[in-house]
Amino acid sequence: MKMTSSYEISGMTCEHCVRAVTQEVGEIPGVTVESVDLDSGFLTISSQQLPAREDVRAAVEEAGYELV
Predict the structure, then answer these.
(1) pLDDT band at residue 5, thresholds of 50, 70 and 90?
(2) Residue 14 gets which letter from DSSP?
């Protein structure tokens, strides 16, 4: 059964930001990025087993943004 989770991200201002977050978070094993909404600043992911929040934080920071 797939589980979904959403995270708020600060610092995104354009579509390049969305692509960077999508790419980095998408590299977490087993994670599918469902959406990155620039207007609301929310990232939604799905996976069989949700990753540790620290893994998501590290990926978001690698893309250059901050997990709220």
Answers:
(1) very high
(2) S
Distance CA(15)–CA(52), nearest Å, equals 26
Could you give all domains of the chain from N- to C-terminal order, each with its CATH number?
A: 3-67 (3.30.70.100)
- pLDDT tens by residue, 7-33: 999 999 999 999 999 999 999 999 999
CB atoms within 10 A of CB 25: 24
Cβ–Cβ < 8 Å for 15, 51? no
What is the C-alpha R_g of the chain? 11
Question: Rounded to whole angstroms, how far apart are CA atoms 67 and 53?
Answer: 9
- pTM for the model: 0.93
Phi/psi for 53 (5° steps) reads: -55, -35
